[in-house]
Amino acid sequence: MIADIIPSVTWIYLSPHLDDAAFSCGGLIWDQTQCGGKVEVWTICAGDPPEGALPEFAQSLHDRWKTGEDAVALRRNEDAAALKLLGASHRWFEVLDCIYRRDPLTGTALYDSGAAVFGELRGSEMDQVQSLAGQLRAQLFPEDTLVVPLTIGNHVDHQLTRRAAEEVGRPMIYYADFPYVVNNEHLLGFLMPPRSRGESHQVSRPGVEHWQAAIGAYTSQTATFWPDSAAMKNAVEAYWSRINGLQLWHQV
Q1: What local confidence, expressed as pLDDT, does residue 54 receive?
Q2: Are strands 173-175 and 145-149 parallel, antiparallel or unpaired?
Q3: pLDDT bucket at 68, cuts 50 / 70 / 90
Q4: Is the residue at 1 inside a domain?
Q5: Number of domains the chain contains
Q6: Backbone torsions φ then ψ of 113, nearest 5 degrees
Q7: For the residues of the chain, what is the DSSP string, one character each?
Q8: 143 within domain boundaries
Q9: Dihedral sign of CA atoms 152, 165, 159, 235 in order
Q10: Domain span holding position 70
Q11: Can you tell me the distance from the alpha carbon of 224 to that of 130, in angstroms, rounded to the nearest whole number?
């Protein structure tokens, strides 16, 4: 049995980037849609970077991804294809990925290295958090089930997404950020929201296969985490096989 599939309820998964929700919860999303559930993935950092030269670190990532200048457009296409495989719809917000964001006063890149990207969210971004919270509050319905990242891995865009969601002021469900969680399970206790309980959610074998296929659709991103498709599929299989599903943390 797949838990908590209520057709009249829309499950809203907040995805910091054009891949995170599918990476972390793809199998569960597929099972939910196959049971008649309505699932939407709202990607926060899906905006086009401004015209002109990219920050040096952003350019280095474009080179690694082999996406050229149209990286965000290509990644949106990947996201649409992946979510179609899972039966979910998408909504793309216009926040810039942190690698494109600049200090409004100096014009310098806010996050100019891997260390910065996995460091602290800049204090100057709090206005962005509040603005995003307002957008979420305006677009969510009371009956929606909101599912947000725990921020395992500490990526600043995951932090921004979680903080904005928590500013909305409603109960939420949290998911572990895969694949970051694989080597960082010891951090779960530090990231648990107050008054929450962990619940295991089964994922079917076809759900696992669609999860793997959806991750594979993000061709520009998978090489960041795995050397090839077989390694990715093995990683998903190993993660799923611990409890034949995944764990979510429900606020009570």
Answers
A1: 95
A2: parallel
A3: confident
A4: no
A5: 1
A6: -165, 165
A7: --TT--TTSEEEEEESSTTHHHHHHHHHHHHHHHTT-EEEEEESB-PPPPSSPPPHHHHHHHHHHT-GGGHHHHHHHHHHHHHHHHT-EEEE-BPPPGGG-B-TTT--BS--SHHHHTSPPPGGGHHHHHHHHHHHHHH--TTPEEEEE--TT--HHHHHHHHHHHHH-S--EEE--TTGGGG-GGGHHHHPPSSEEEEEEE--HHHHHHHHHHHHH-TTTHHHH-SSHHHHHHHHHHHHHTTTEEEEEEE-
A8: yes
A9: positive
A10: 10-251
A11: 31
Q: Which two tokens stand for residue 241?
A: 């096989």
Encoded tokens for 62: 């474009």
- Whether 127 is covered by a domain: the verdict is yes
Supply the pTM of this predicted model: 0.95
Amino acid in the structure at residue 25: C
DSSP codes joined into one string, 161-184: HHHHHHHH-S--EEE--TTGGGG-
Query: Which among 103, 108, 114, 91 has a CA at the least distance from the CA of 45?
Result: 91
State phi, psi for 204 to the nearest 5 degrees: -70, 165
Q: Is 164 a domain residue?
A: yes
Q: How many angstroms separate the CA atoms of 25 and 44, rounded?
A: 16
- For tokens 């969510």, the residue is 140
Q: How far is CA 15 from CA 11, 166, 227, in A?
A: 12, 14, 24
pLDDT over 70 at 23, yes or no = yes
Q: Would you give the distance in Å from CA 117 to the centre of its chain?
A: 15
Percent of the chain residues past pLDDT 70, beyond the cut: 97
For residue 106, the domain's CATH number is 3.40.50.10320
Pairing of strands 245-251, 196-202: antiparallel
Distance CA 123, CA 137 (A): 22
Radius of gyration, alpha carbons of the chain? 17
The whole-number pLDDT of residue 7 equals 53
